[in-house]
Amino acid sequence: MQNFDDVKIEKIIGSGGDFIVEVDGEIVFSKNGLIGTDRVRLPNGGEITRLIREKLA
Q1: pLDDT tens digits, residue range 12-43?
Q2: Half-sphere exposure of 48 (CA within 13 A, CB side)
């Protein structure tokens, strides 16, 4: 991956319309996890990179 060395990326295609990003088995972003809030959305540009960096720090 361009922003991180030595990473494993896995794409799992399913149903339900969710978009989930995990770092070391912990969810750092979930579109469906935002349902019921005023923030149901896909991540903004650079947001996933920032969340991963914060988790790894």
Answers
A1: 887 777 888 888 888 888 887 776 676 667 88
A2: 17
CA dihedral over 12, 18, 19, 25, signed as positive or negative: negative
How many other C-beta atoms lie within 10 A of the C-beta of residue 8?
Answer: 5
Tokens of 3: 């922003």
pTM of the predicted structure, to 2 decimals: 0.72
User: What whole-number distance in Å separates Cα of residue 38 and Cα of residue 4?
Assistant: 31
Helix (H) or strand (E) holding 54: helix 47-56
d(CA 6, CA 4): 7
